[in-house]
Amino acid sequence: MRVRLEGITVLSDDVSRLASFYREVLGFTTVIEEGHYAEFENSGVRLAICSKPLMAENTSGHHSFVEERKGQAFELNFQCESPEAVHEIYQDYVTRGATSITEPKSMSWGHTTGFFADPDGNIHSIFAINPEPENR
C-alpha cells in the first residue's frame, strides 16, 4: 500500500496577507479564499494556506499550532526554463514585494539559484538547471 503527497499547506497567522503575496507576487490563481484558508490552482500538488488558530482547533489545541514559530520550517522551490529566466523572474518577484535573500547565481550543484522570502519570512528558492557546457 502506498500513499501519495496530495498537498502542501502553509500555516500563517495572517492568511489574507500571505495569500495576497502568493497571488500578486508569485502569480498563483486563487481557487478558494476564506478568512482562515486559501487554496491555489496548481497542477500536481495542491498548495494551500491555513490559519494556525484553525489548525489548533482541528488538532485539539496541539501546541505546535499555538506556539510562535522560530526558524525556517519549509522551502518551496520554483523551477524556471533557463538561468536567464531565473534572473528576470527573481527581479520581478522582488519588485512586487518579495524580500531578496540571495541574488541568483550559479551554484556548485549545477543550478542557477536565488532565494527570496515571503511576508511571513519563509525563504524559498527559484532556480534553473544550468546548460551543459559544450565540448570543444
Characteristic terms for this protein:
globular, 4 helices, 136 residues, alpha/beta
Q: What is the compact description of this entry?
A:
With 136 residues, this protein is of the alpha/beta class. It has helices spanning 15-24, 52-58, 63-66, 83-95; strands at 7-12, 30-34, 37-40, 46-51, 77-79, 99-106, 111-117, 123-129.
Instruction: Give the strand line-up of the largest sheet.
Output: 1-4-3-2
Averaged pLDDT, please? 92
The best one-word shape is globular
Q: Structural class, from helix and strand content?
A: alpha/beta
* Low-confidence spans: none
What summary fits the major beta sheet? 4 strands, mixed
Number of helices: 4
Q: Estimate what percentage of residues fall within beta strands.
A: 25-35%
Terminal Cα span: 50 Å
User: What's the helical proportion of residues?
Assistant: 25-40%
- The total count of strands amounts to 8
Quaternary: single chain
Radius of gyration: 17 Å
